[in-house]
Amino acid sequence: MNLSSRTGHDALVVTVNAPRIDAAVAIQFKDRMRAETEQGPPRVILDLSQVEFVDSSGLGAIVAVMKQLAAPRRMELSGLRGNVDRVFRLTRMDSVFNIHASLDDALAS
Amino acid sequence: MIARQRGAPDVRQARQAMRPPPQIRFHITMAGQAHHVRGALSALTCHLRGQNVPEPVIATTEIVLAEVLNNVVEHALSGGADGQIDLRCRRAGSGLCFEIRDDGRAMPGGTLPEGHLPPVGDRVADLPEGGWGWGLVRRLAQDPSYHRADGRNHMRFRIALPE
């Protein structure tokens, strides 16, 4: 699972460089995210703009990562594409996360 | 006016060309592990795309099938390497019919779960990390059914095609 991260002045941005977060990689995603978010600013933005598909295992892994962040750190999401956005809305997880249309929007907010 | 007269048959032909043909038939057998499910989904979506099935139908199909197949892997087969899953898809009437068979454990209670979505509370620590699978299937698939026969699980559902 290819993730890349960079730290700006007030946010840690983690980009998922993979088309899927599914049952085949959910555990790996959680482990890699834990390592990427171990340190850094309180604001974490997960950029999903390259992700085309998330199943319920992948969604559970994203929620688990958010739960692992100690308060006041909080994870926000950006760049949810068609089917990914749909899974978040159908499961009502869109109400849990602060979701931005794009990474630029997230960084500007 | 002239443009409309000329254009109309072209539009009709284009629509007919885009309509998925009635002979969609797809069959794949996979080992009961998550990365094989991924490969099977990739092969199926590629096939449907090649048959001009509309993208929204393919997107819905992928969500539903991922949940159904992952459930088989995690619960019926428990991720064992020797379990087999059989997936069939065919065009029938105004939809795509799917049948999934596996040789794993029976569904508890002999029926499909009702698919209530886990509640979303206010506390981050209490958020669900799963339990959405059957809720997604129930919301997106038509006529899901299950039966046990010959020591195997058989599950069927339909995904509607636009008229």
TrEMBL record, chain A:
Q: Which Gene3D superfamilies match?
A: STAS domain
Family, per entry? Belongs to the anti-sigma-factor antagonist family.
Which intervals hold domain STAS?
21-109
NCBIfam families per the UniProt record, alphabetical? ant_ant_sig
The molecular function GO annotations come to: anti-sigma factor antagonist activity
Protein name (record): Anti-sigma factor antagonist
Q: Which Pfam families match?
A: STAS (PF01740)
PANTHER family listed in its UniProt record = ANTI-SIGMA FACTOR ANTAGONIST TM_1081-RELATED (PTHR33495:SF2), ANTI-SIGMA FACTOR ANTAGONIST TM_1081-RELATED-RELATED (PTHR33495)
Which domain of life, per UniProt? Answer: Bacteria
The organism of origin for this protein: Salinihabitans flavidus
Q: Which InterPro entries match?
A: Anti-sigma_ant, STAS_dom, STAS_dom_sf
From TrEMBL, chain B:
Going by the UniProt record, its keywords in alphabetical order are:
Kinase, Serine/threonine-protein kinase, Transferase
Q: Which CDD domains match?
A: HATPase_RsbW-like
Cross-referenced Pfam families: HATPase_c_2 (PF13581)
Q: What domain of life does the native source organism fall in?
A: Bacteria
What residue spans carry the region label Disordered?
A: 1-21
GO molecular function annotations of the record: protein serine/threonine kinase activity
Keyword Protease in record: no
Taking every annotated instance into account, which residue ranges of this chain make up the domain Histidine kinase/HSP90-like ATPase?
34-158
Q: Which Gene3D superfamilies match?
A: Histidine kinase-like ATPase, C-terminal domain (3.30.565.10)
State what protein this is by name.
Serine/threonine-protein kinase RsbW
Species annotation? Salinihabitans flavidus
